[in-house]
Input
Amino acid sequence: MAASAVVSVRVPSWAKKVLDEHGVEYRETLRRVLVALAEAARGDARRRLLEAFSLADSAAGSAEMSPEEIVRAVRGCED
Amino acid sequence: MRTSSIVVVDASAAVAALVPGPLQQTVRELLLDLAGHAALVAPSGLFDAEVLNGLRKAWLRGALTSIAVGLEAFLAMPVQRVEVSPLILRVSAEAVGAGRVSGQDAVYLATALVLNASLLTLDTGLASAASRVLGEGRVLSPKGEA
Output
C-alpha cells in the first residue's frame, strides 16, 4: 500500500472571516485555495508547472507573440 | 516583493508562459517561484475562455504548432479555478462602475480583492487598475510597470 503524504496547511484568519460571513457560498472556493496551498507545500505545483512548460515547448512554433499581442488576443480583440 | 499567499493568475500571464515570446522565460520563472509557496487561482470560465482565445491566436500566428497540445499544457498548469460567485460579480460591478476597467478585468480584480490575493498579469491597464484597488505591492507585472 502506498503511503500518503499529509501536509498541514494553516487556514488564514481572513479565510475564517469569509467563511463566517458567507458560509456555504465560499466553502468550495476556500477548499480549492487550500488544495492549491497544499500542492505548493508538497512541491507538486512546481512539478506540474515544469511538465506543462515542457509540453508547451513541444508545440512551440517559429513565431513569437509580444505581450501586447497576447493581451489583445486573450481579451478577444482581433487584429 | 511581498505577495499574498494566494495569487490570481490572469489569462495573459498563462498564455505568456506557454507561447514563445520575449517574456516567456520571465513569466515561467515567476510562476515557478510563486508555485513554491502560494496558491495559484483563477476565475473559472473567464480564465479558460480567454486562454483559449490566446492559444487560438498563437496558432494562427505560427507561435504554436498545435492548439490541442497547447491546451493540454494549459490544463496541466496547477491553477485552481474558483467560482465567479454572486459576491465576486457584485464587487466586479462596482469596479466597472468606478470606470476604466472592462468586465473581464473587473472579475480578475474582484477575485483578487475578495480572496485578499495578489494579481499576476501582463496587461498594463489591468495592472494599473489593480494597483489602485489592491495596492501596488499586490500586483505582479513581469514588465515591472504596474
User: Anything to note?
Assistant: Residues 1-7 of chain A have pLDDT under 50 and may be disordered. Residues 24-42 of chain A form the longest helix (19 residues). Chain A touches chain B at residues 12, 14, 18, 22, 25-26, 28-29, 32-37, 39-40, 43-46, 48-53, 55-56, 58-67, 69-71, 73-76 (CB under 8 Å).
